[in-house]
């Protein structure tokens, strides 16, 4: 096997001969350093060979067939996967990023080693970033923090993650980096002395209990210290409050020894309440397992202790990379397969999604964002996206539980379904015994019921998978309501044309399933038949009202301080000129005014014109509501808030306690009218708002 690695190096050296990196060093240094880092992770030979060859296809025009014949099909596939990822240069904020992320994740599903090579490649590039221009350094550093570091975290590879974090932080905020680095260095001797003393004391206590293991201080990365300082500053805490500035790692032979060691520690020092986590019984989704506890140690200083086996430590440091180290001699690795289910879930969601926007949303939220950890009533840990609600929790446990969720308890108390879950919460979902489904309101981002893209996608899928006839019927009712609200009389062909659909059943099914919303349909329907805004009265065109927009426009800019010159008193319609005064803004004169003709400072004469005017059109709307004190005031306030003038209001009470208001208003356009309808529908006790297309009597403005 060593011979294969040597052959790969010689072949790569020959292919890259004469090529230089931006730094001026021979190009072969890059694949060599990438491979050496993967050697430190102790990956298999084919991965090392592929790392040495990962740039020869793209940069040296070597065919994949040649690689397959020289080094085997498996190596060629790995190199091909890395080449595709390199070409993608994943950037979440640019067009095509959905396809780029999709290919990254598909590559991971096919062979996770492709992404391990890519992470090692990025790590070496970050180490040599200083030769690039500052703007490019910052862009690559930000991309590393946004994508590659969270990906390494998700794969459980701490050894890569902390290095990427610190390097990216250095290029994004060099001053802060040096400040924290110097602070840690200044306290290093004090910290090492203290940790050495407590480690020695713990070793003696373990020896008395017949426990053997390794007890060492746990180093802190610069970026993780920065993040912790930021969080503590937001909570008003001091640096001395950070529990794990003093930290120990204890490695033992078995999981039983982990729990025995925990008992020894708690006998030795007093544990801090709320600072214990059992990730062995409840492992994180990125395969991490350990016991965490924080105790009040000698001198009253808090000390965080991590306890794990040697094998669990390897997995914590190298994540999925450790899979290849331990898999020899095993028929399969069920634990590895279990812990990678999140990746397959993402790909399942991707196959369900027609729109790339949904895929990007799910990846950014459910993989690359911060997580919160909550407990089930039985004490199991559940990892959720930050900002998740009890509904997200229900869907995380089981899709059917999410569908039947009707309430929730957090820490034993009933809470609303839009409650944001916090770290350490114990969550219980109250489920309906009936076979019910989610609410369409859950899809409304303004309501805040669902915080994760995965749960939102499951809600969408539920509606899509309902009986087509039920969705069509629901969509027909929603469409009828929108048409009635707008008082539109449109045939099917006009509705389909406005909504860009070819088939009415397809439109109704999508509307009924939540694929498109009532608001979207209503906005499109409002574009139809705009001619009523210039109505015909008695067979004669009804003149719209003209209203000044911004008064006088000076050099194309409205709403500046102006005054009419008393010497010539211009009126709208006159040709005018402006004169910039020293204290009273711009004085407006008629063109040819004798006072301006004799002006000896012509540079103070500026171009002005009468401000633009817009047309106001009379529209009659009918409001039906339950009668109450203050109703008319609330309606008129809503209209005024939209800067719409009311020409007349006629109210009529009905025996059933309802009231009808017919308002004639002046509006600029359909867009303003649509906003007004939305505001009126939000007024308390209003039942319905429709547009009356009957003839409007000629109205004279005040």
UniProtKB/TrEMBL annotation:
Entry keywords, A to Z: Coiled coil
Domain HD: 27-126
CDD domains on file: ACT_RelA-SpoT (cd04876), HDc (cd00077), NT_Rel-Spo_like (cd05399), TGS_RSH (cd01668)
Biological processes per GO annotation: guanosine tetraphosphate metabolic process
Pathway annotation: Purine metabolism
SMART domains: HDc (SM00471), RelA_SpoT (SM00954)
InterPro entries, alphabetized: ACT-like_dom_sf, ACT_dom, Beta-grasp_dom_sf, HD/PDEase_dom, HD_domain, NT_sf, RelA/Spo_fam, RelA_SpoT
Coiled-coil spans in chain: 469-496
Annotated TM spans: none
UniProt similarity note: Belongs to the RelA/SpoT family.
Keyword hit for Coiled coil: yes
Name this protein carries in UniProt: Putative GTP diphosphokinase RSH1, chloroplastic
Species annotation: Geodia barretti (Barrett's horny sponge)
Pfam family of the protein (one): ACT_4
Residues of the TGS domain: 370-431
GO molecular function: GTP diphosphokinase activity
EC number of the protein: 2.7.6.5
SUPFAM superfamilies the record matches: ACT-like, HD-domain/PDEase-like, Nucleotidyltransferase, TGS-like
Any one of the GO CC terms: plasma membrane
Keyword Coiled coil: yes
